[in-house]
Structure formats: C-alpha cells, structure tokens
Write a structure and sequence with these properties.
With 95 residues, this protein is mainly α. The chain has two domains: 14-64; 67-95. The chain is built from three helices and no strands. The N and C termini lie far apart (55 Å).
Length: 95
C-alpha cells in the first residue's frame, strides 16, 4: 500500500520557528498544513514566473523573426498547415 504522507525534518533559526508557530496558530492550522499551503503557493508562483519568462522569450523570438501582429501569427499558422512558410516541415525556422 502506498504511503500518503512522508515525514520531513527541517531546521530553521529560532526566530523563524517562533514566527512559524505564531503564524500557524493565527491561521488556525497545524504546522504540516501551514507548510503544505506555503509550499503550494511557492510552487504556483514559481510556475507563474517560468510562464512569464517563456512568454518574454517567445515575444523576443517572434520580434526577431518579424512576427509582430496577430495577422502575422495567423499567416504563419496557415502556412505551417500547408507545409511552407517561416517554419518548415521539421519545425525549424527557415528564417
């Protein structure tokens, strides 16, 4: 049977431990639930940061290829479906 929980031990400075206990009590959560909530929030923010970094990279790449408008995107998609255009059949840029 698969375990649903794994016990972890971490060490933090005493002042962080004190603040952590205070926050858990204030939020009416046990330490494990507070940690899970904090971790999920951190993970969500990390994924959002990665998304925006990829978005910036894509925008920069598009600009370098002269893809500036929605019409440019539509043209490239249509050309890609027909097998010619900025992206060849391999998916590599012909530009």
């Amino acid at each position: 049977m698969k375990r649903r929980r794994v016990a972890m031990t971490i060490s933090v400075p005493p002042e962080i431990a004190k603040d952590y206990e205070w926050l858990a009590q204030k939020e009416a959560k046990n330490r494990s639930q507070l940690f899970r909530d904090m971790f999920l929030l951190y993970k969500e923010q990390a994924l959002e940061k990665e998304f925006f970094e990829l978005q910036r990279y894509g925008a920069k790449s598009a600009k370098l290829k002269g893809i500036l408008t929605e019409k440019d995107v539509e043209r490239i998609v249509f050309e890609g479906r027909c097998g010619d255009g900025v992206l060849g059949r391999s998916g590599e840029s012909d530009v």
